[in-house]
Amino acid sequence: MLSEFQKTLLQSVKAFQSTQLVKNKYENVLQHLDSGIILFDSEGVLTFVNVEMAKLMELPRQSLIGCNLLQMLRHPHLSRYLKRKVIRIYRETFLYGKKFHELVDEYGRNWLITITYGDQMDGDFLLSVKDVSDYKRIEQTAYHNDKLAMLGKISAAIAHEIRNPLTSIRGFIQLLRPHLIQLGRDEYARIILAEIDRANDIIHEFLNSSKPSAPLKSVIDIPTLLGEVVLLTESEALMKNCEIVLSLPEDSSMTVSIDTKQIKQVLLNIIKNAMEAIEEMDAEHRGMIDISAHSEGELVYITIRDNGNGMDQNLMNRLFDPFFTTKEKGTGLGLSVSYRIIKNHRGHISVDSTKGIGTVFEITLPMVDSKSAVVGASQ
Fold first, then answer.
1. Does the model's pTM come out above 0.70?
2. Domain 218-378 is classified in which CATH homologous superfamily?
3. Residues in Cβ contact with 156 at an 8 Å cutoff, skipping those fewer than 6 apart
4. How far out from the chain centre does Cα 61 lie?
5. Secondary structure letter of residue 68 according to DSSP
6. Which of 48, 115, 272, 353 sits at 20 to 30 Å (Cα–Cα) from 194?
7. Would you say 57 and 65 are in contact if contact means Cβ atoms under 8 Å apart?
8. Could you say which enzyme class this protein belongs to (predicted)?
9. Residues in contact with 81: Cβ distance below 8 Å, sequence separation at least 6, in sequence order
């Protein structure tokens, strides 16, 4: 009789130990997830919080266990910013019943908030927070590429059909010009020709943005390239009360294989935009455009920084979209063309900006070693 009892007790202990091992195993998995996890019971008391969530909240895990939502909000070490975020998440998920909610933090990172509850949770509420910034960037890149593909189809269909009648109109206006001069109306002909040329320039941008020509690469040193760009822009900059400063590291080899004309087009476009952003500031504002370059590993980084008007996050998100512009006479194609050119060079272009402070563009290009440079120059 006693042995049967001992046997049953031993089995119960083993079952308990097995259950505890399984529990510890799954808890360990939850602790090391890259998502923040927090669990409230049916009474609204916090019963579990993993390492990632405690890190996001910048609070020790043990100080959160056993708190309800109100006590958590009153935590002396919870920042005011995080309190606002917690209240917003509570409102969106619990009050409005949204099981999925997205928010952007002060650093521009995207977060996906998910809440799980119901019969399968036995009355508990599981809240998870995951950084989805990388997925958002991939999604935005795919969306941008879809737009460019659509632009290519449109341009192939209509661009040449527009150019042909413009060429005919231009020819007839030139034939009529002597008669207009006799009538004292040469100004009319000049304006018409200028507008036709402007329309042709827009169509040229349109075609380039949909399908920039394949790069005709040659080997060039980045300091040489940037020096030429500064020479092309510094006189216009001075006229617009801007100073262009070129900063380059000493004794640094930064050789790239690029289509010099195309990359110059990108750099000149960014510098022109910087001048226009500076013009939007107060007339007494002294404009500064800093151009620098440095190498890291097999990449060269070109940075163009201005102290112009800057832009907000919404504007930055659409900056490389075709046809998006804030200028009255802009086509919205300059930066989308630049994006395609850098992409065709296996590079990357990014922007960071603060309204009222300025904007920073960074272009990354792959470098070539001395052996590749010799091969590239001979081709």
1. no
2. Histidine kinase-like ATPase, C-terminal domain (3.30.565.10)
3. 210
4. 34
5. B
6. 272
7. no
8. transferase
9. 106
